[in-house]
From TrEMBL:
The lineage of its organism: Bacteria, Pseudomonadati, Pseudomonadota, Alphaproteobacteria, Sphingomonadales. The gene is panC. It comes from Alteraurantiacibacter aestuarii. Keywords: ATP-binding, Cytoplasm, Ligase, Nucleotide-binding, Pantothenate biosynthesis. NCBIfam families: cyt_tran_rel (TIGR00125), panC (TIGR00018). Homodimer. Pathway: Cofactor biosynthesis; (R)-pantothenate biosynthesis; (R)-pantothenate from (R)-pantoate and beta-alanine: step 1/1. This is Pantothenate synthetase. The keyword Transferase does not apply.
Length: 286
């Protein structure tokens, strides 16, 4: 596996790979876990050459968020990617990604405004901008993202459609189902922050969401079910719930009643100092 830190070297390496076949990109912020490695394994089904990027993107962190504390484990990550047969690791530093004078930001209206966009102002501008740059730097045929960050995936697809991106085309932005721990907790680099007691309580998030989905799919009142879900999380030891919402799976418009189209239940909640997110499909009643 080649590890590259400079854009000029990246361009040469990508040109060489491209001569030999298609490229799939898995963008990450490192601190890799099985969720990321699943993306790498899935990527191999789409292209012979897998490029992984590791860049802890400062522009997607708010002033009071965990940028400094975000886990950084480059040597461990490299060994994992090597053992997965990754062709190239793109690991620029902040100055390479955002050279002096950098002044551009991409805002994707609508889909980035509610849910995490409401509680993390500017977060999705940072994500859309860095992902657009990563796409232009690597020019992958296919890019893969975890469905755990459902809103992020919707924002990136919207951006690719709206900006007529070619590599990758919006249709080649692939979402991969969330990888979960044995008790249902969605894998996340931030799970490492949880104390043992909070880690145990965090499992209630997925259980309560599944129970809420069963209620909604049975036709029970949506607002009452979301309020019940919030109560369940607070009773389990969560400190606060940023949102527990039912939304259209694609536009992320909030749904007040039983869904008539594919929908998603999305939750963000804080336990200790850690903010967890999760989302799951809700079947439409037609
Ligand atoms: O999901 C992530 O790890 C990040 O938001 C991403 C897509 C790599 C952009 O920094």
């Amino acid at each position: 596996m080649q590890t590259i830190n400079h854009i000029t070297h990246l361009r040469e390496a990508v040109d060489d790979l491209r001569e030999q076949g298609k490229i799939a990109l898995v963008p990450t912020m490192g601190a890799l876990h099985d969720g990321h490695l699943t993306l790498v394994r899935e990527a191999k089904k789409y292209a012979p050459h897998v490029v992984v990027s590791i860049f802890v993107n400062p522009t997607q962190f708010g002033p009071n968020e965990d940028l400094d504390a975000y886990p950084r484990q480059l040597e461990r990550d490299k060994a994992l990617l090597e053992s997965e047969g990754v062709a190239l690791l793109w690991a620029p530093d902040g100055a390479e990604m955002y050279p002096g004078g950098f002044a551009t930001s991409i805002t994707v209206a609508g889909v980035s405004e509610g849910l995490c966009g409401a509680s993390r102002p500017g977060h999705f501008d940072g994500v859309a901008t860095v992902v657009c740059k990563l796409f232009n730097q690597v020019r992958p045929d296919v890019a893969l993202f975890g469905e755990k960050d459902w809103q992020q995936l919707a924002v990136i697809r919207r951006m690719a459609r709206d900006l007529d991106l070619i590599l990758p085309h919006a249709g080649n932005i692939i979402g991969i189902p969330t990888v979960r721990e044995s008790d249902g907790l969605a894998m996340s680099s931030r799970n490492a922050y949880l104390s043992p007691a909070n880690r145990q309580a965090a499992a209630r998030l997925n259980q309560a969401m599944r129970e809420a989905i069963a209620r909604i799919e049975r036709g029970e009142d949506v607002a009452a079910t979301l309020a019940w879900l919030e109560q369940q999380l607070l009773a389990a030891g969560f400190a606060s719930v940023d949102y527990a919402s039912l939304a259209d799976a694609e536009s992320l418009a909030l749904l007040p009643g039983t869904p008539q189209r594919p929908a998603r239940l999305l939750v963000a909640a804080r336990i200790g100092q850690t903010r967890l997110i999760d989302n799951m499909a809700v079947e439409a009643r037609i």
